[in-house]
Amino acid sequence: MTPGTTDRPQMSIEEFEQLARTAPETVTLEFINGKLEVKPVPDGINGAIVVWLLKQCMQHRPELVLHPEQGLKIEAYRGGRARPDGSLAPEDHFVPQGEWADPEGVLMTVEVTSRDRDANRRDRVEKPEGYATAGIPVYLLVDRDECTLVVHSEPQRGTYCNRKVWAYGEAVELPDPVGFTLKTGKLKDYAS
What we know:
By secondary structure, the protein is α+β, with helices and mostly antiparallel strands. It is about 20% helix and about 35% strand.
């Protein structure tokens, strides 16, 4: 068995949280699948996509906020910690919770793929499993490599039972409890 697996994580949650607290601001750390992960610093396109989505969420669901980079305790997911690009929840949902919050009450997590070698494993495989295991109703992946949006929904036993893919420019239906349609034409401006 190799280090950093579910049977033998690289470190304890307490050790990870201490390391994450002392990491330089230029590094974002996550603890996924028993392994320490370094999340790439978002580039300008990643940031623009998150802002675009934040505006869409505010227009359709003004009582909710897309909280950027809020750390989530994904306890059921092998004692992990994730820092999604966005977590859709009520405005003051995370106020009393600190750096690593309980995922209860989060309606949707969002990841925007980065241009690094671990994006496939992290954003397309491990994160959906972690968010489903935590019971987060919707996981939205903005896949910059494929110019698509992938909506995962209906979490059950560590997997999302429903997965739909839309191309940039299509109207993307976000299922309940999110319950609105994204107009994604703007994303074509960010395709490269």
